UniProtKB/TrEMBL annotation:
Gene3D superfamilies: Alpha-glucuronidase, C-terminal domain, Chitobiase/beta-hexosaminidase domain 2-like, Glycosidases. It comes from the Bacteria. This is Xylan alpha-1,2-glucuronidase. It is an enzyme of class 3 (hydrolase). Residues 439-662 form the Glycosyl hydrolase family 67 C-terminal domain. It comes from Croceibacterium mercuriale. Coiled coil: none annotated. GO terms for biological process: xylan catabolic process.
Length: 686
């Protein structure tokens, strides 16, 4: 039980269980996709049978065009090109469980849905399932480098072995495709947004093409991050100015070359003028100029451009949280119609908690893609158990109130609010060459939750946690209930012990491991934790009201009003929006200072509680995965204590306040915490 199987872990079903396994699989049609669906079902049923004879109706895989399926008049119209329908019907005068869809990919998705159904302990007899994705582009973004390292990766090296590609495409690539197709993920950006131009050279395109060939039967398209200055680096041009005809011609030719190698290539993802990356601003052009140039190059081939809004400049003295909005909102309506602007969930950077990004709702004329981070750069790497389903749900459900109430981020992103043809969501992958893919068993759940919510954002994080636990461990409520409960509280625990009450970006420099709220001397102001917490003798927090940066004004008027007043700001975001005195009275009746300490302790308490809960589950979990998780939870408790103690020691050095009644003193003095260093922390680019 090394975790390799992910949610495709097929084991003998419990004797006397709900499921009568099918007597066979009938495939109507001979395409690689239908063959993959058949292979998955056959393999799963054989493993699940565990020697007991099958008794259930046969499964039939058939597209909507099959004459017998057509005669059934099934409601397939709403399934789109990727959805599926599963029904118990009569075919060829015998009972059958039909898996169908408007395309082979739909049928494949249905096959995986059926296996999820069985693997979560539900009966096949009388099965009726139908589902279609709400968001068009459901992509993983790999931050994988050509040298095999993974930026912000905590699961080992990259799974792409660029060295042995294109000749060698071992089984791992197929298993990657299976795991993603099971969730409905339909695209993958292979390389880091901090891109090397080399990815666009002929040898690397050939390597990418080999991966595309493996993924194609699974409905997964390949995309690449494009380096904006590639015309200079590869083409020898003196400029990468997007309005220069020679630059445009270079990209047109490059796009043609890419599509010759990969006919169904998805398109480009671009990080421009951000953290040192080149971009159109280098030439006095706008982000729209840059995006549209690439968009024109891929348009004849059916490609798209995903242009990231993650920008902030050292030359801009304004609040970092405001800069993307300031730069992008005026460009609304100027992007070509095959461009999506990709926006992180929050305005700063994948923190344990951020209010939703104010660009959502503010650019109705542009399809906005939501970018989530699955890899836990700021949430304790792979050793802290933090289920991100709740975090993803929080942002998707957030109401932008633009133009009016009921305009959730999910409705902006799925295109329904503004009637966009294109819609997309991206997750920065947490996948690496580690045997268990994600660096820990529970981090697999974050990949899983991303995929499930990308397919259907109306699913609940809790239901997803339970179904993940059932497939990962066993479909036994005695296990799935407690595991889901652990998961549901786990992200708040991290918020509590790292950055409670709306604090953000207090992590160690560069690697982002552990607390370093005292850092104040880095070259760029907004790289310093002190920039974000602004704590001093009197108080703490970032004033984003009119008396401060006025970032609140970037939200819809009713939200701006709510966030402008500490009394109506959700306490979870309090110090994000306000600088308040240490003795500010909280809803609990405690002072702000006492509340902070209380939250740190609550965070540690939650981890202690998770450890206890996990211990009780030992009889229901295999020893290998149980022991690893137990060890990681011990690391998490140690780190939570460290975060609490170091933070409290630092805040006290500023506010001079005594510890609240009953609170334990930090284990060490502040200098001890300051002296810790982590030159070899994983995932760090420098
Ligand atoms: C930050 C990461 C950095 C990424 C950047 C991005 O620290 O490694 O390159 O985001 O999203 O969170 O571009």
């Amino acid at each position: 039980e090394d975790g390799y199987d992910l949610w495709l872990r097929y084991r003998p079903l419990a004797a006397g269980g709900a499921t009568a396994l099918p007597t066979g699989v009938e495939r109507r049609g001979d395409t690689p996709t239908l063959r993959a669906a058949e292979a998955e079902l056959t393999r799963a049923f054989a493993a699940m049978a565990g020697g007991t004879p099958a008794r259930g109706a046969r499964v039939v895989l058939a597209g909507a065009a099959d004459p017998e399926v057509a005669r059934l008049n099934l409601p397939l119209a709403d399934l789109g090109s990727e959805g599926y329908l599963i029904r118990q019907v009569r075919l060829g005068n015998a009972p059958a469980i039909l898996i169908t869809g408007n395309s082979d990919i739909g049928v494949l998705h249905g096959a995986f849905a059926l296996l999820r159904h069985v693997n979560t302990g539900q009966a096949l007899a009388g099965i009726e399932l139908a589902s279609a994705p709400r968001i068009g582009l459901r992509l993983l973004n790999h931050w994988d480098n050509l040298d095999g390292s993974v930026e912000r990766g905590y699961a080992g090296e990259s799974i792409w072995d660029w060295w042995t590609l294109p000749e060698y495409t071992g089984p791992r690539y197929t298993d990657y495709a299976r795991a993603n197709a099971a969730l409905g993920i339909n695209g993958t950006v292979l390389n880091n947004v901090n891109a090397k131009a080399d990815s666009l050279t002929a040898p690397y395109l050939e390597k990418a093409a080999a991966l595309a060939a493996v993924f194609r039967p699974y409905g997964i398209k390949v995309y690449l991050s494009a380096r904006f200055s590639a015309p200079v680096e590869l083409g020898g041009l003196p400029t990468a100015d997007p309005l220069d005809p020679a630059v445009q011609a270079w990209w047109d030719a490059k796009a043609t070359e890419v599509y010759r190698a990969i006919p169904d290539f998805g398109g480009f993802l671009v990080k421009a003028n951000s953290e040192g990356q080149p971009g159109p601003r280098d030439y006095g052009r706008t982000h729209a100029d840059g995006a549209n140039m690439l968009a024109r190059a891929v348009a004849p081939h059916g490609g798209i451009v995903m242009w990231r809004a993650f920008v902030y400049a050292d030359t801009d003295p304004d609040d970092r949280a405001k800069q993307a909005y300031t730069e992008f909102k005026p460009l609304d309506g100027q992007f070509a119609d095959n461009v999506l602007v990709q926006v992180k969930n929050g305005a700063i950077d994948f923190q344990p908690r951020e209010p939703f990004h104010p660009l959502f709702g503010a650019m109705p004329g542009t399809p906005l893609m939501l970018e989530l981070q699955i890899t836990k750069e700021y949430l304790g790497y792979n050793t802290h158990l933090a289920y991100l389903g709740t975090m993803f749900e929080e942002v998707l459900d957030a109401d932008t109130m633009l133009p009016a109430a009921g305009a959730s981020v999910a409705r902006v992103v799925d295109g329904s609010l503004d009637g966009h043809r294109l819609s997309g969501i991206a997750g920065v992958a947490n996948i690496g060459a580690d045997r268990n893919w994600s660096g820990s068993t529970f981090d697999q759940a974050n990949w899983y939750a991303f995929g499930r919510l990308a397919w259907d954002h109306t699913l609940s994080a809790e239901a997803i946690a339970a179904e993940w636990a059932a497939q990962t461990f066993r479909p036994d409520p005695a296990l799935t209930g407690p595991v889901a409960a652990m998961m549901m509280g786990s992200r708040q625990a991290v918020v509590d012990y790292m950055t409670p009450l709306g604090l953000a970006h207090l992590m160690g420099t560069g690697h982002h491991h552990g607390p370093a709220p005292w850092i104040a001397d880095l070259a760029r102001p907004e790289w310093n934790p002190a920039y974000y917490h602004r704590a001093d003798r009197q108080g703490i927090g970032f004033d984003r009201t009119a008396s401060g940066s006025n970032a609140v004004a970037q939200y819809a008027p009713p939200l701006a009003a709510r966030f402008a007043d500490p009394a109506t700001t959700p306490e979870a975001d309090l110090l994000w929006f306000h600088h308040l005195p240490w003795d500010h009275r909280m809803q609990s009746g405690r002072t702000l200072w006492a509340e902070l300490v209380h939250d740190y302790d609550r965070g540690i308490g939650s981890v202690v509680q998770m450890r206890r809960q996990w211990d009780t589950l030992a009889p229901l979990v295999d020893a290998e995965r149980h022991a690893e998780t137990a060890a990681f939870l011990a690391i998490q408790q140690r780190d939570a204590q460290w975060w609490r103690d170091a933070s409290i020691a630092y805040w006290r050095s500023l506010n001079g306040l005594p510890l609240p009644d009953g609170a334990a003193a930090p284990a060490h003095d502040l200098d001890w915490y300051k002296a810790l260093s982590f030159p070899y922390a994983p995932g760090h680019p420098d």
